[in-house]
Amino acid sequence: MARLEANVRGSSFGYLIKEGFRNLRQNRAISVAAIGVLVACLLLVGASLLFSMNINSLVGYFESQNEIVIFLDDSVSGSRLTKLDDELRAVGNISSATFVSREEGLETWMKELGDDGTLLEWLVEDNPLQNSYRVVITDLSKMDETVDEIKAIRGVESVSASSEVAHAVTGLKQAVSLSSLAVIGILAAVSLCIVANTIRITVFNRRKEISIMKYVGATDTFIRLPFLSEGVLLGFLSATIAFFLLWGGYEALLYWLNDSALEWATLITGQLIPFKQVALRVYLCFLATGMAIGGVGSSFFVGKYLKV
Amino acid sequence: MVELVNVSKSYGKGPLALDDVSLTVEDGEFVFIVGSSGAGKSTLLKLLLREEEPTGGKVLVDGIDLGRLTRRRIPYFRRSIGVVFQDFRLIPQMNVFENVAFALRVTNVSTKEIKRRVPYVLDLVGLLPKARRFPEQLSGGEQQRVALARALVNNPSMIIADEPTGNIDPAMSFEIVELLSEINKCGTTVIMVTHEHELVSRFRHRTVVIDRGRVVADGKIGGKRARQ
């Protein structure tokens, strides 16, 4: 009975890791295939992640460029103008609001015309422009509500906002986020199947050892852990390879866009995120995804294929 | 001590593999279990190793009711039993020493202890000079001796041998049973399944005959304890 009370020593960690490596080595062909598929999946996930990040950055850029102009009633001045200013700033979803007086407006207009600006000099005496505000919206998807709120302020005559652009930009942002999620979901499922298959083959190849382990009294955990470490190792190797491939691919794309004579390319390259800025985040994301898929896949399926 | 009390076992809706079997094996006994194939011998061993649970009755080993053993405790229970199979079940990529050490390594025994215990059991089965050989470099009898060393290395209180001589020539078979008898003399209980009558009659240990799931004879062949 004393034998039944034998305690498990905790010093087998190194042995179990070594077993994981041995499994990988012994099933080279299937390991390489599994790593290949996992790398491909992670690359697609990474590409979709980078695409989504860059779209967000571009949308952010467009958002900051997308001003709305509020034209004020001519009667608003003095204390009424101060009150209107307070009310305007109390409206949410506004990142900045700059007051442009009718004089400043005319001055800007004249500057924009350059030499032809002198043609407008006669307007200085009888300025037809209105006092206005240039407002930058924080979240373009709520633009319509914000414009309605502004219109309700007393003294606001009209609001000029290009809601089509706002709708297009926010629609694009949502579509990209949704499609990225779908791509990641599908690829995670594919990766899980691949890892499960690899583990099934390993279990089959090692069925003799496993049966001996059972008969000599190895615990379930001890039998399962090498498969778990094999899965995690598969994930780790795949994540590392995928990370460097993605880095290389992204830099090559940026180089090509920079070099390109295309007008749209030069327009957006300034707004694209440099890889180094997101490298750590991407690598951690790859490691977490790869190792979780490897670990979860193997520990879930090893129980299924291994009757211990 | 091993006790089977009115044990029955059936698989699914099939016929009874064991039918109301009651059997006691005292500590330090050597018992042959004989019977034709399909008689229920393997089922009996599976019940003793807690690979299967009886459909009815109780199986007790050293006072432990195996039916009440939790899943978590099963491995610890198995460490008190050494098992030997007909097909040796050695790992071809490991040499003799590593095959024996494997049983200790997977039960968390320290390397220092492994280095002390493995040569001792290899010496016991007469294979210490061949410790670095691989299974394919050994004869069938030698391979079975490695398997026996692996079964012994955890210092079990009982050895269960499932037709250990089934794959080896007669001369070697005698040698293996001789070795098991020596181990038995040191106090280890041995339960050996066989269908080789020559061995049974030569070694004259207690013999239990199973036929169609029932114990039909129990005693020494030619001895007075036999009952029909």
Backbone CA Rg of chain A? 31 Å
The largest sheet of chain A, given as strand count, sense and whether it forms a barrel, is: 4 strands, antiparallel
Helical proportion of chain B, percent range: 25-40%
Biggest sheet character of chain B? 6 strands, mixed
Write the layout of secondary structure elements.
The complex is a heterodimer of chains A (308) and B (228).
Chain A: H1 13-26, H2 28-65, E1 67-72, H3 78-90, E2 94-100, H4 102-113, E3 132-137, H5 143-151, E4 156-160, H6 163-205, H7 207-216, H8 220-259, H9 263-269, H10 275-305
Antiparallel strand pairs in A: 1-3, 1-4, 2-3
Helix pairs in contact in A: 1-8, 2-6, 2-8, 2-10, 6-8, 6-10, 8-10
Chain B: E1 2-10, E2 16-25, E3 30-34, H1 41-48, E4 56-61, E5 64-65, H2 74-78, E6 81-84, H3 96-105, H4 111-124, H5 140-152, E7 158-162, H6 170-185, E8 189-194, H7 197-203, E9 206-211, E10 214-220
Parallel strand pairs in B: 3-8, 3-9, 6-7, 7-8
Antiparallel strand pairs in B: 1-2, 1-4, 4-5, 9-10
Tell me what the structure shows.
The complex is a heterodimer of chains A (308) and B (228). Helices cover 70% and strands 8% of the residues of chain A. Chain A is of the alpha+beta class and 308 residues long. Chain A folds into 2 domains: 10-62 and 168-305, no CATH class; 67-161, Alpha-Beta Plaits. The two termini of chain A are 22 Å apart. In chain B, the strands form 2 sheets. Chain B has a 6-stranded mixed β-sheet, sandwiched between helices. With 228 residues, chain B is of the alpha/beta class. Chain B is globular and about 45 Å long. Residues 223-228 of chain B have low confidence and may be disordered. The interface between A and B is medium-sized, with 24 and 27 residues.
